[in-house]
Specification:
Length: 295
């Protein structure tokens, strides 16, 4: 079973070209699934039935796993079994007509414009690390890119003169995103004055570097944004995606059209972007309730 998983991971890495984050998530989900199968003495892939898989998903639910996690695990299991049949490692696919559990549509947490200002003003730009952090935060809010995209940006992906950056989203899909004047100002300062001081090896192309002169990690950035949120006195739960959610919400609140926001966020399906319209509608209702004399 473990060898089949190895072959599957190689397939989605090389032939399907899925992102590193997706591959890691699928690997974790399938390792857990295979552990469940082994515990129930199901070592022959041809003996796995739809009932077995449904039982596993129900177990995840009983353990308190989030709907999104169960849905992703279901997608990984379906993809895995489809691969096994396609490559003739298995005779049948037990996931045919298997539906993923319906997701709870939880609205993402967003910051108000004032809270964003407080957060972005926390880094001390009198030192190199403050300039780096300020640049990253400004860039995230200016573009709405994912943290996984931010830490992979290379110097050559930035065009300060034209005011845009190039990034590669899920499935290595390339997109061009405009960058605002404030973020561009700090990008120019960071690239010209700060990054050369941090750089240890000249062949390092990644834009944002850690204290060792290497590419910053997602975990490293998470610690940075959490520290500044605490210093800003923001009580809301902050995640690495908070500025992305705030970017999209603020654009829509100020009249941006949904299709343009979809392009900037890199969503393949506009229905994913539409969740932000629910937030803006909630905001409108809140304003109405507070200001209308007969609300």
């Amino acid at each position: 079973m473990d060898e089949l998983l190895r072959k599957y991971i190689e397939f989605i890495s090389v032939e399907r070209g899925l992102s590193k984050n997706t591959i890691n998530s699928y690997r974790r989900d399938l390792k857990s699934y295979i552990t469940y199968l082994k515990m129930h003495n199901m070592t022959d892939i041809n003996f796995i039935t739809r009932t077995v898989i449904v039982s596993y998903l129900i177990l995840m639910q009983k353990k308190g796993k989030a709907s999104a996690s169960i849905s992703r695990a279901c997608a990984a299991i379906k993809s895995f079994h489809h691969f096994l049949v396609m490559e003739r490692f298995a005779e049948k696919d037990p996931t045919i007509n298997l539906d993923a559990p319906k997701l709870e549509h939880r609205l993402p947490r967003v910051l108000t414009f004032t809270e964003v200002e407080q957060l972005l003003n926390q880094p001390d730009i009198s030192n190199v690390w403050g300039v780096r952090d300020k640049t990253m935060l400004e860039l995230l809010y200016a573009t709405g890119i994912r943290v996984s995209e931010l830490i992979c940006i290379k110097v050559e992906d930035i065009n300060i003169e034209m005011g845009y950056l190039r990034c590669f989203g899920k499935g290595a899909k390339e997109r061009i995103v405009p960058v605002g004047s404030v973020a561009l100002k700090y990008l120019k300062k960071y690239i010209n004055d700060v990054r050369p001081k941090i750089l240890k090896e000249q062949d390092e192309k990644t834009l944002f570097l850690n204290h060792r002169g290497k590419a910053l990690t997602r975990q490293g950035f998470w610690k940075i944004i959490r520290k500044y949120a605490q210093e800003a006195g923001i009580l809301k739960k902050i995640t690495p995606h908070t500025l992305r959610h705030s970017f999209a919400t603020h654009l829509l609140e100020n009249g941006a059209d949904l299709r343009s926001v979809q392009e900037m966020l890199g969503h393949a399906d506009i229905s994913t972007t539409q969740i932000y319209t629910h937030i803006t509608k909630s905001k409108i209702k809140e304003v109405y309730d507070k200001t209308h004399p007969r609300a």
